[in-house]
Amino acid sequence: MIQALLWDVDGTLAETERDGHLPAFNDAFADLGMDWRWSVERYGELLRTTGGRERLLRDMADRPDAPSTTEQRLALAQALHRRKNERYAERLAAGLIGFRPGVMALLEEALSAGIPQAIVTTTSCSNVQALLDQQIGIGWKGLFAAVVCGEDVPLKKPAPDAYLLALQALRVQGMHSLAIEDSPGGAAAAKLAGIPVVVTRSVYFPDDALDEVLAVGPGFDRRDGWQPSLGAAAGPVRLADLQYWHFRGELFSHFT
Ligand code: XBP
Ligand code: MG
After folding, report:
1. Is the pLDDT assigned to residue 256 strictly greater than 60?
2. Beta-bridge mates of residue 99
3. Closest atom of ligand 1 relative to the 51 alpha carbon
4. Is ligand 1 within 6 A of the CB of residue 16?
5. Is 237 helix (H, G, I), strand (E, B) or coil?
6. Mean pLDDT of the chain
7. 3-state DSSP call for residue 122?
8. Would the pLDDT of 106 be above 70?
9. How far apart (Å, rounded) are the C-alpha atoms in residues 58 and 218?
């Protein structure tokens, strides 16, 4: 039985990278009078680096026109990141980003079933707040037993810190909980914390290799395309399906 459900944010709850962070980074470059722009493809490469500030620094490492000293780079990354997050919040307030199909129904089903849920992300706390205020409403924190975001941990995903902190707050063991992720780095973070993972693929990680996850599929609004298969019936992925995958994983781990 699943004793806690742990939700990643970016790519999992919403397609925030393509529809939110990327355009907001490009807005921030323009706002600071810079001619840097990231293409969809370049952003896909940079997503291998978790954390907006870290991603900016990673990009600067490849740029001949980046500031030359570490201090200057850090200051620029900080200014750009602050502006990016403001622009990101503006996009959310304008209704440009919504939850992925099927997410809200699963959240509500788990809530009705009394399963504690947590937000476990290493994006900035302000970005989590902006998304959930907009999609659920200002009382959203009441729905979650724990909220862990980037500022709460020393190391971002794929390090397990965020998941370990969430488990501590929830007082559950990793093996009795379930993480929902979209990326190989996020899945790795959960697994390092001993948490079984279900992966709902997002636009930026459509076919990346994933080892040792409980299940992987195209999104919670459909039952086809999932591995392990959910059979031929139509309709969304339900809490009972997550329970089935979790139970299957437990059985499997006893025999290996
Ligand atoms: C999220 C991230 C974040 C976002 C941008 O990863 O890597 O850096 O891309 O947010 P995950 P910030 O889905 O694994 O939580 O700019 O606030 O870092
Ligand atoms: Mg993610």
Report:
1. no
2. 14
3. 8
4. no
5. coil
6. 96
7. coil
8. yes
9. 29
For residue 254, what pLDDT is reported? 60
Residue 56 backbone phi and psi in degrees, to 5:
-65, -45
Q: Any idea which residue has 């952003």 for tokens?
A: 43
Q: What is the pLDDT of residues 19-72, one digit of tens each?
A: 999 999 999 999 999 999 999 999 999 999 999 999 999 999 999 999 999 999
Q: pLDDT-based confidence at 146, cuts 50/70/90?
A: very high
User: What spacing in Å lies between the alpha carbon of 122 and ligand 1's midpoint?
Assistant: 6
H or E element: which one contains 99?
Answer: none
Residue nearest to atom 1 of ligand 1 (CA): 123
- Closest ligand (CA of 128): 1
What's residue 167's pLDDT?
98
Which ligand sits nearest to residue 149's alpha carbon? 1
Instruction: Return the exposure string of 1-31: e unless at least 16 CB atoms fall within 10 Å of the residue's CB, then b.
Output: ebebbbbbbbbbbbbbbbbbbbbbbbbbbee
127 CA from centroid of ligand 1 (Å): 9
- Mean pLDDT, range 148-154, rounded to an integer: 97
How many Cα atoms sit within 13 Å of 56 on the Cβ side?
26
10 CA → ligand 2 middle, Å:
4
Handedness of CA 69, 75, 77, 80 (dihedral sign): negative
Closest residue by CA, ligand 1 atom 5:
52
Catalytic residue positions, numbered = 8, 10
Nearest CA to ligand 1 atom 7: 50
Rounded average pLDDT over 113-125? 97
